[in-house]
Target: Enoyl-CoA hydratase/isomerase family protein
Amino acid sequence: MNYRLETTAPNTPDDVLAAFLTLDDPARRNALSDALLDQLSALLQQAASDPRVRVIVLTSSHPRIFSAGGNLDAFADDRATIEKYAGLSRFPALFRTLTGIDKPIVCAANGDVLAGALGIALACDLIIAKDSIRLGCPEINVGAFPFMISALIFRATGRLVANELMMTGRLISTAEAAAAGLINKVVPDDEFDDALRRWISEIAAKSPLLLGMGKRALAATRDLPLESALDYLQAQLALAFTTDDLPEGVRAFKEKRPPQWRGR
Model:
């Protein structure tokens, strides 16, 4: 894993940064080993705790692969079942970390997103992808099943699309993925880096406080009955009225100037 901080756009203050977390095991096609998952979790926590970071970006150093998914060698080795079971908590823990961090997390899919990596992408808040990549759950082709990521797939797309992905192992294009609601934005390969920068800059310009409140509210209400969700969201809106950022945003809009977020 590589970790770097960059300003979100030219001429932005030094204390407004994006954290880039790069999967960097190209020889193994960024297979999601225990060590890599532990590093990723630690770096996510580091970015989450840095007050200068407005946006977190996950990407890959491999020229064609974001990640090939779980480490197949570990699936078929001769360790005792109890030892393998002990490591299974890493994926759900990582998904909870991704959804629990207040800051927006962007998956910059600059290569194929396969198997468990699709779960990581879907646990992010937004996905931007190169037009040439493929996405899918090929686990069934090697006698496995995408148990851990099925809950995320079902929350991102319809049941029949999810079933087809998991039961056939077919890889899909970005056009199919976008139509199914699995990615937000598809960009021609040669425009990807510039499009990613523009997106990061746009997101980083929003109130970090309100984005964090909104992300927590979405996570808390996603699976609630409507009445319970509305009660919770009403309380969150009332809480937003007590912040300095909400009236500052309205004043800035009326005065046609950039807002000065105070984070309180």
Q: What stands out?
A: Residues 34-49 form the longest helix (16 residues). The chain has a mean pLDDT of 92. The CA atoms of residues 106 and 126 lie 5 Å apart. The radius of gyration is 19 Å.
